[in-house]
Amino acid sequence: MVEKLSTQKAINAYKLKNVKERCPLCNRKMSSVETRNQVVDHDHSTGMVRDVICRNCNGIEGKIHNLCVRSGKWINNYTFLENILEYWRWHEENPSGVQYTKKKPVRKRKSRYAKV
């Protein structure tokens, strides 16, 4: 039988009972995270609870998930993330020797008080 967290009271009780010493994503001590910033992370497609994590990591995880979904239907999220990690590691170990230094041009804003 699946336990359901349908009220804020049940969610808070679950958090207190299941919070770990550290956030499983950023490794920050959960004792240094305000209780209101300790959140119950869940899979939005199934509703199943995964863990209690810090609010910051929960937001980042959600954004990463959404960006992976937007990357296309031709590759699954795990493969896409694994490819990104492999890509970053490879380029960290094999730098191109070329540095990107292009800067955006500074736009001069017309003063609203300038004389015409």
* Uncertain residue segments: none
Per DSSP, the total helix count is 3
Q: What would CATH call the homologous superfamily? A: His-Me finger endonucleases
Annotated CATH topology: His-Me finger endonuclease fold
Mean pLDDT across the residues is 86
Alpha-beta classification: alpha+beta
For the record, what CATH class applies? Alpha Beta
Number of strands: 2
Which CATH architecture?
A: 3-Layer(aba) Sandwich
What number of structural domains do the residues give?
A: 1
Shape: extended
Brief digest:
Helix content is 38%, strand content 9%. It is α+β, with helices and mostly antiparallel strands and 116 residues long.
In words, what does this structure look like?
- This protein is α+β, with helices and mostly antiparallel strands.
- The chain has a single domain, classed as His-Me finger endonucleases (His-Me finger endonuclease fold).
- The chain is 38% helix and 9% strand.
- It is built from three helices and two strands.
- The protein has helices at residues 8-18, 55-70, 77-93; strands at 38-42, 49-54.
- The protein has a two-stranded antiparallel ribbon with strand order 1-2.
- The model has no long low-confidence stretch (mean pLDDT 86).
